[in-house]
C-alpha cells in the first residue's frame, strides 16, 4: 500500500489510523486519564435469576459429559463487548460464577494457571481433591485452589451442593498467560491424609514448626467457624465505620492473602448498620451470604438479599447498609487488592461530605424472574 501526504490535521489523523499509528496530541488524556475510568460498571445479579438458569443447565447438561464444570458466570455489562465472552469478567480482573454439583457427580481433575477460590453457599456432602489432598466442605467454608494445582470435585451426599467460584480469568486473559491441563484420571490420586492442611492449622494463630520456611498455599479449607470466630471477636469492639466487622482470609504461613492474586473477606453488618462511603482502586465482587440491605454505589442504590451478587468497580464510591433491625448481614467478597498492591496502584479515599453518606440519585432495577 502506497502512502499519501497529509494535507490537514484531520487527514493526518486518518492516515495515522490506517497505518496503525496514533496522534498522541489528541489521545493523551484518553491514555493517561486524570483518574481511573472503569470499564466494568456497578451491577447486581439476583439469586433467583442465577439459580433459575443453573437449574435449566442441570436439566440440559451432565457434568463430565458435555460439561467439565456446570457453572453460570457473571458478565459485567461494561465488559460484554470483549471477545471471547466478555473475558468472563465480573470486574476487569475477576471472574465469578455459581456452580452446582449434583449427588454422585464428579467434576473431573484439571489444573490451570488462573488462580481460584471457592465459597460454599448451599448443600452438605461436597468434597474436593486439591493437590493430592481430599478436602470436605460445608456451607460458609472458603477454599483455595492456587495456580497450577490439580483439582476435582464431587458430591457424596444426597443434596445438591452450590458454591461461588472466583478466578483471575480476565487478568490472566489480558496478560495472555493461561495454560490448562487435563488430568489423565477423572479424580487425582490422594497423596496425604484427608483434610491434611486443616489439621495442620487447627489452632488458628499458631502454625506447624516447619512453616518457618514460608509456604505458598499451606491451607486448603477455611471453615465458616474460623471466619465466624474472628468476626465474633471483633463484635466485642467498635465496628469499622465503613465495613462493620470485617476479616480477610490469610495464608497462615506468611500472613499474606490466602490466595496470592485474589483477596477475600467476610464482613458482618450489625442490625441497622449504616456504613460510611469510601472508594479505592481495587474492584470487589460481593456475595450476600446472609441478610438483606442495600449498597449505594456512585449515588445508585442497589438493594440486595441473601444469594445475590453485586460488583463495586474501581474508584466507585460505595457504602453498605443493613436494613434489618434484628438480623445481621454477612457479605463474602473477593477483590483484586493483591494485584493493585503488587503494582503500587492502590489508593483509598473517604467520602467527606454529608457525614460520609452519598445522596441517593437513582435505584438499580435488576433483571428479575417472572
Ligand atoms: Fe478449575
Ligand atoms: Fe470498599
UniProtKB/TrEMBL annotation:
Residues 98-165, 266-328 form the Cupin type-2 domain. GO terms for molecular function: dioxygenase activity. Keywords: Dioxygenase, Oxidoreductase. It comes from the Bacteria. It holds the Pfam family Cupin_2. SUPFAM superfamilies: RmlC-like cupins. This is Cupin. The lineage of its organism: Bacteria, Bacillati, Bacillota, Bacilli, Bacillales.
Amino acid at each position: 500500500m502506497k502512502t499519501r501526504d497529509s494535507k490537514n490535521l484531520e487527514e493526518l489523523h486518518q492516515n495515522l489510523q490506517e497505518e496503525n499509528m496514533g496522534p498522541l496530541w489528541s489521545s493523551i488524556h484518553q491514555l493517561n486519564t486524570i483518574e481511573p475510568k472503569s470499564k466494568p460498571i456497578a451491577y447486581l445479579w439476583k439469586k433467583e435469576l442465577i439459580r433459575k438458569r443453573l437449574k435449566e443447565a442441570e436439566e440440559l447438561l451432565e457434568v463430565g459429559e458435555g460439561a467439565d464444570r456446570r457453572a453460570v458466570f457473571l458478565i459485567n455489562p461494561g465488559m460484554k463487548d470483549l471477545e471471547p465472552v466478555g473475558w468472563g469478567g465480573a470486574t476487569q480482573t475477576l471472574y465469578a460464577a455459581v456452580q452446582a454439583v449434583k449427588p454422585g457427580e464428579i467434576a473431573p481433575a484439571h489444573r490451570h494457571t488462573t488462580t481460584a477460590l471457592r465459597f460454599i453457599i448451599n448443600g452438605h456432602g461436597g468434597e474436593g481433591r486439591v493437590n493430592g489432598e481430599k478436602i470436605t466442605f460445608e456451607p460458609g467454608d472458603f477454599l483455595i485452589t492456587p495456580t497450577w494445582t490439580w483439582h476435582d470435585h464431587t458430591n457424596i451426599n444426597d443434596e445438591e451442593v452450590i458454591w461461588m467460584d472466583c478466578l483471575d480469568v480476565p487478568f490472566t486473559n489480558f496478560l495472555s498467560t493461561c495454560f490448562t491441563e487435563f488430568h489423565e484420571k477423572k479424580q487425582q490420586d490422594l497423596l496425604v491424609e484427608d483434610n491434611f492442611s486443616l489439621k495442620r492449622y487447627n489452632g488458628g494463630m499458631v502454625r506447624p514448626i516447619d512453616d518457618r520456611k514460608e509456604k505458598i498455599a499451606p491451607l486448603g479449607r477455611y471453615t465458616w467457624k474460623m471466619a465466624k470466630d474472628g468476626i465474633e471477636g471483633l463484635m466485642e469492639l467498635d465496628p469499622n465505620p465503613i465495613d462493620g466487622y470485617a476479616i480477610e482470609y490469610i495464608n497462615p504461613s506468611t500472613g499474606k492473602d490466602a490466595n496470592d492474586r485474589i483477596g477475600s473477606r467476610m464482613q458482618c453488618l450489625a442490625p441497622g448498620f449504616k456504613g460510611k462511603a469510601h472508594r479505592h482502586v481495587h474492584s470487589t465482587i460481593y456475595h450476600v451470604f446472609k441478610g438483606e440491605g442495600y449498597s449505594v454505589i456512585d449515588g445508585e442504590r442497589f438493594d440486595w438479599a441473601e444469594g445475590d451478587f453485586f460488583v463495586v468497580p474501581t474508584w466507585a464510591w460505595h457504602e453498605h447498609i443493613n436494613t434489618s433491625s434484628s438480623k445481621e448481614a454477612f457479605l463474602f467478597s473477593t477483590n483484586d487488592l493483591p494485584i493493585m498492591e503488587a503494582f503500587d496502584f492502590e489508593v483509598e479515599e473517604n467520602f467527606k461530605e454529608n457525614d460520609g453518606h452519598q445522596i441517593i440519585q437513582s435505584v438499580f432495577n435488576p433483571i428479575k424472574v417472572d
